[in-house]
Amino acid sequence: MVLPRSAMRNTFTVLPLGDAAVTVEFGREIAPHLNDRVLAFAQAVRMQHWEGVLDVVPAYASVSIHVDPLRLPVSILSQRLHALSCDVEAAPSGRTHRVPVLYGGEWGPDLDDVAVFAQRSVADTIRLHYSNVYRVYMLGFSPGFPYMGLVPSSIAMPRLATPRSVVPAGSVGIAGCQTGIYPSATPGGWRLIGRTPVSLYKPQSSQPFLFTPGDTVEFYPIDADEFARMSYAAPA
Question: pTM of the entire structure?
Answer without folding.
Answer: 0.88
